[in-house]
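Deliverable D2.4 — example input (structure tokens):
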């Protein structure tokens, strides 16, 4: 099965949340760089990405919007594709779990596992996290909350199919033991063994009857295939496994690298191998769990961007302001691979300035300008060699090997740091050889020629090595050296490949230098202005809403009797879905479950909580408040919060209190 001439790499498929931010781009940009790298080594690469479109959340959101789930996701998916285009993501297929060939594979997988006894029907009673769309057993919970996202969970019961995960525990442990590179970084393997396998693998619920937006189980259509079998199967359905044409599957499976964020490693390192074992298919060669891009210490989410409002986190906005390669470079270079990394406007701008504008940009402009001035733009032959050349030549010659090792270890930041070591060495070589002094002495022309040739050749090697990481800028640099055709790494095996006599163009600044202080001031002002404008719009909306709700404004609460107080019906409610009210920065539309009753409430807490944060939380609801309309949206009650300085915090009842419980 092992085939060294192919390379199959995947990103996780994205939930169409619409909250696309620079953190979202991280996995895909990293995979793109690796895919491009292997293409340049001559391997045939298949790079897969896509979207994970089924499930309860999408069903609920589409319903609220009055559109079909497919219509709802279509717009979000095309927005994501636009971001990938802006970032030069070179995927070979963008799979959607709503694609007919994917559906066919999933139905086959489910049926096959059922027929083999790996899936069985039973009743499920378990703790459910709406946000993660996952069931957990009591022991899996962390302090009574979801072990993956830390949110509230609630008890759900339903008839379901189950995957016999427990049966595969020993084989998964053997897999880890016999293939120490299967799961990386190494620490993730211990996490899987100690947190999930050793405490006992529980069989996994793999179908739902309450969620209709999913792939129907072919032999029992009341059930839909529940998220993870659907989602994980994308890695084989995209290659045509059991859905028609298996040519790609035969060529590319097993996968060389599944790249995933650390929070979903469990699904890729335990559940996915178990499914593949049950299907009797070869296992992926490697699964890599990368860290998160953090802002202000948090995994990015749109609502948190509102709080830290001066950081630019919209990938499209960053690309428009600074270029696609600036963002690609930052993501690839700044985040220590395998660990979390931090974004701030300042860190971003400084990184771009120092590496791209100063080190790389200056090297290219200085070298091409000197060839232009001293040799009329014609690359001279390297006639007079000197010992000082050797260190630069050696480093440049060894670069391909060093970077190949880094990429094999999936250490992308190290690959870039190795390339920039050579860029830095070339700049130092300019200082050492002082070509501007040589240019003034006619008898040093030969030496000047050698220095400039060595620099141009080093630039060619570095730019070729940079093609996978910052493709459009690296192509521009190569074009200044007269190289306009597609090149592979075979063109940089050895120093001296650049032909003297070719015409060199004088380079324009590829990454113009940014005045970081001035730029940050400008961004701050722009973001604050945006924030104020949004607040103004909201305030006038709220005033109108208050008027129409006919609410008296109470400055000093008067005393009330206990009977007055008991007129208020307070109940425990579970947030089942939530979204922002359109054109309002303050209001959230929240769907609540009171056990056997549901409610919709509009609450002005969007500044303090994201919709995702609220889903799964238990809250206190004023259940007998007169229905009001806020921004045209009906609100059937009010959620209680406490004031906390400039912010507000939800009053959260004890997790053991059931939905619908009365509060007295
Ligand atoms: N749909 C599942 C994956 C199913 S794969 C069979 C999912 N989707 S997701 O949209 O929530 O996440 C997609 C990827 O984006 C994950 O790898 C996740 O880790 C990554 N990221 C989302 N926010 C991120 C950061 N702030 N930083 C780094 N990666 C982030 O999970």
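Example output (designed residues):
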């Amino acid at each position: 099965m092992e085939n060294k001439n192919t390379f199959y790499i995947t990103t996780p498929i994205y939930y169409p949340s619409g909250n696309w931010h620079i953190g979202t781009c991280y996995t895909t940009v990293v995979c793109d760089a690796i895919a491009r790298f292997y293409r340049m080594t001559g391997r045939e690469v298949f790079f897969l990405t896509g979207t994970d479109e089924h499930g309860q959340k999408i069903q609920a959101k589409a319903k609220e919007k009055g559109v079909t789930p497919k219509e709802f996701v279509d717009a979000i998916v095309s927005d994501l594709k636009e971001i990938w285009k802006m970032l030069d993501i070179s995927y070979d297929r963008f799979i959607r779990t709503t694609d007919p060939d994917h559906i066919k594979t999933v139905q086959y997988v489910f049926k096959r596992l059922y027929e083999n006894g790996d899936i069985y029907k039973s009743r499920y009673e378990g703790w459910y996290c709406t946000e993660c769309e996952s069931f957990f057993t009591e022991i899996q919970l962390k302090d009574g909350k979801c072990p993956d996202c830390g949110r509230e969970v609630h008890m759900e019961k339903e008839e379901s199919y189950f995957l016999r995960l427990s049966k595969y525990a020993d084989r998964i442990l053997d897999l880890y033991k016999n293939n120490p590179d299967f799961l990386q970084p190494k620490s993730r393997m211990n996490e899987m063994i100690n947190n999930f396998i050793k405490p006992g693998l529980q069989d996994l619920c793999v179908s739902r009857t309450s969620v209709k937006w999913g792939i129907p189980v072919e032999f029992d259509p009341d059930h839909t295939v529940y998220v993870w079998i659907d989602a994980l199967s994308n890695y084989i359905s995209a290659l045509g496994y059991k859905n028609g044409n298996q040519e790609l599957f035969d060529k590319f499976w097993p996968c060389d690298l599944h790249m995933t964020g650390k929070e979903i490693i469990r699904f890729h390192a335990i559940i996915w191998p178990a499914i593949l074992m049950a299907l009797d298919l070869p296992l992926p060669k490697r699964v890599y769990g990368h860290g998160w891009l953090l802002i202000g210490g948090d995994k990015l989410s749109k609502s948190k961007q509102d709080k830290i409002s001066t950081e630019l986190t919209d990938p499209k906005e960053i690309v428009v302001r600074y270029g696609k390669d600036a963002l690609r470079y930052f993501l690839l270079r700044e985040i220590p691979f395998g660990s979390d990394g931090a974004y701030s406007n300042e860190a971003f701008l400084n990184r771009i300035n120092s590496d791209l504008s100063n080190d790389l940009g200056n090297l290219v402009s200085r070298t091409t300008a000197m060839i232009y001035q001293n040799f009329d733009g014609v690359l001279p032959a390297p006639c007079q060699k000197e010992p000082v050349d050797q260190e630069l030549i050696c480093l440049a010659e060894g670069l391909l090997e060093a970077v190949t090792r880094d990429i094999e270890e999936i250490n992308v930041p190290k690959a870039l740091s190795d390339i920039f070591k050579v860029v830095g060495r070339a700049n130092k070589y300019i200082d050492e050889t002082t070509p501007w002094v040589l240019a003034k002495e006619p008898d040093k022309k030969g030496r000047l020629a050698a220095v400039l040739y060595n620099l141009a050749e080093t630039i060619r090697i570095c730019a070729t090595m940079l093609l996978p990481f910052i493709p459009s800028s690296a192509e521009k640099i190569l074009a200044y050296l007269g190289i306009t055709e597609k090149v592979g790494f075979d063109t940089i095996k050895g120093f001296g490949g650049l032909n003297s006599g070719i015409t060199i163009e004088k380079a324009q600044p590829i990454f113009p230098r940014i005045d970081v202080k001035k730029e940050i001031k400008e961004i701050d002002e722009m973001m604050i202005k945006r924030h104020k404008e949004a607040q103004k719009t909201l305030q006038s909306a709220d005033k109108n809403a208050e008027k129409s709700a006919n609410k008296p404004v109470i400055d000093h609460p008067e005393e009330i009797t206990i009977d007055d107080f008991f007129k208020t019906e307070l109940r425990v409610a579970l947030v089942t879905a939530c979204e922002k009210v359109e054109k309002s920065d303050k209001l959230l539309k929240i769907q609540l479950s009171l056990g056997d009753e549901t409610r919709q409430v509009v609450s002005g807490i969007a500044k303090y909580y994201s919709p995702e944060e609220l889903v799964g939380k238990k809250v206190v609801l004023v259940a007998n408040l007169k229905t009001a309309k806020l921004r045209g949206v009906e609100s059937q009650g009010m959620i209680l919060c406490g004031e906390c300085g400039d912010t507000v915090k939800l009053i959260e009842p004890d997790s053991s209190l059931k939905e619908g419980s009365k509060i007295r």
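The pocket of 5'-O-[(L-methionyl)-sulphamoyl]adenosine is lined by residues 12-15, 23-24, 26-27, 52, 231-232, 260-261, 263-264, 292-293, 299-300 (CB under 6 Å).
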